[in-house]
Design a protein that fits this description.
- It is elongated, with a radius of gyration of 28 Å.
- It has ten helices and eight strands.
- It starts with 13 loop residues before the first helix and ends in a 5-residue tail after the last strand.
- By secondary structure, it is of the alpha+beta class.
Length: 264
């Protein structure tokens, strides 16, 4: 007796119709990174922002937060009580301070001799004499000035106020003063409008929602606005470039310099 054996028809499963793709964890990670960068570039371009804005900020912020803690030494002007007293007496509201501090970690990534700039808002005597401390809308600045925090700056901590002593932890400073009378209240209003803004790790000088130090100076003093340089697909101004703008302006003059005069 012959037994017939019936074999079932083989169905082609999807896994047999399509070749199997096996990725190592490294290949998977690279694929995710490539997808993220592609999306980042697409979104950046669609918003008119510099290329890879999201990823650039992530990397730049991580680096800045780390190297911002590095100080190879104290500045040559640090702890100079005579210099501090001299400036406290002679500084006038809205003087611009350009700073060179090459020993700080953040300066390693800032081309040029000067690495930072800040704005002096005046001391408590100035505010009492001019009546600014009695103006309600200026109270945030008046309170800070009364506490000795009269220097407006934008650094990795954001846009805020600090002490003159903190700024003088530097090797060199140059101070500029306007040559004509200013309506200080207008500039104070601009300062308040920009207080609390985060630091611009994307280095996008065209987006004023986040700021670097030179960008803050241009928002307080619009006449200092100059054509930004293009670097890394971004447009922004370095402190050295802002220094040249101040030097070439008919409306500003340098009245004080401390530190090395070499190469100037």
């Amino acid at each position: 007796m012959t037994r017939e054996i019936t074999r079932p028809l083989h169905s082609h499963a999807p896994s047999q119709l399509w070749p199997r793709i096996r990725l190592t964890w490294r290949q998977a990670l690279l694929s995710v990174a490539a997808l993220f960068l592609t999306l980042d570039l697409t979104v950046s371009l669609s918003l008119g922002a510099p290329p890879f804005s999201t990823s650039f900020q992530i990397v730049a912020k991580s680096i800045a937060k780390t190297i911002g803690l590095i100080e190879l030494r104290d500045g040559t002007l640090a702890n100079d009580k005579r210099l501090l007293l001299t400036l406290e007496k002679q500084l006038q509201p809205l003087d611009v301070i350009v700073i060179s501090a090459p020993f700080k970690g953040t300066s390693f990534f800032t081309p040029g001799r000067n690495t930072h700039m800040a704005i002096w808002l005046g001391n408590e005597t100035d505010w009492a004499k001019q009546g600014w401390r009695d103006i309600p809308r200026l109270k945030p600045l008046a309170d800070a000035v009364a506490e000795g925090r009269s220097v407006l700056q934008s650094d990795r901590h954001g846009t805020g106020l600090s002490s003159l002593d903190d700024v003088l932890n530097a090797d060199e400073i140059t101070i500029f003063r306007a040559t004509h009378q200013r309506d200080a209240e207008i500039h104070f209003d601009r300062a308040i409008q920009n207080m609390g803004k985060a630091y611009d790790y994307n280095l996008d000088g065209l987006d004023h929602q986040t700021l670097i130090c030179t960008e803050l100076a241009m928002l307080i003093f619009p006449e200092l606005r100059s054509k930004p340089s293009k670097r890394l697909g971004r447009q922004f101004i370095l402190p050295d470039e802002m220094l040249r703008t101040l030097e070439q302006s008919d409306h500003w003059q340098s009245w004080f310099h401390a530190g090395s005069t070499a190469d100037r």
